[in-house]
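User: Hi! I have a protein structure encoded as tokens and I'd like to know what sequence might fold into it. I'm fairly new to this, so please keep things simple.
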């Protein structure tokens, strides 16, 4: 699954929520503060997993963080195109094609 596919699934669950047992639906129901809390928790878990020598644990935690970040993006109505454009702009700044933005 690509991150774009994940984003679309999350967006569909937000806009067409009929399954009250869905974890994704429950995050949107609980609101932005809960989603932000989960992003914070998952970020910490990624850092802890990175310190351990278990690559599978690390990959799993990164996947959890990407999922929760995607939920946050959908909740904030930020499209993947917006993120990709920001990354592109920063790359162009780095190679001297643009001016005025933060470099990667």
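Assistant: Happy to help. Inverse folding works backwards from shape to sequence: for each of the 104 positions I chose a residue that suits the local structure. Here it is:
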């Amino acid at each position: 699954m690509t991150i774009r596919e994940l984003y679309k699934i999350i967006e569909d669950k937000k806009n067409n929520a009929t399954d009250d047992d869905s974890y994704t639906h429950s995050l949107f129901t609980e609101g932005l503060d809960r989603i932000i809390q989960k992003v914070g928790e998952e970020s910490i878990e990624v850092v802890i997993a990175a310190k351990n020598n278990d690559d599978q644990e690390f990959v799993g935690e990164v996947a959890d963080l990407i999922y929760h970040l995607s939920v946050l993006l959908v909740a904030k109505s930020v499209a993947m195109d917006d993120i990709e454009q920001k990354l592109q702009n920063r790359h162009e700044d780095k190679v001297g094609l643009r001016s005025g933005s933060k470099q990667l």
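A useful reference point when you look it over: The longest helix spans residues 55-75. Feel free to ask if any position seems puzzling.
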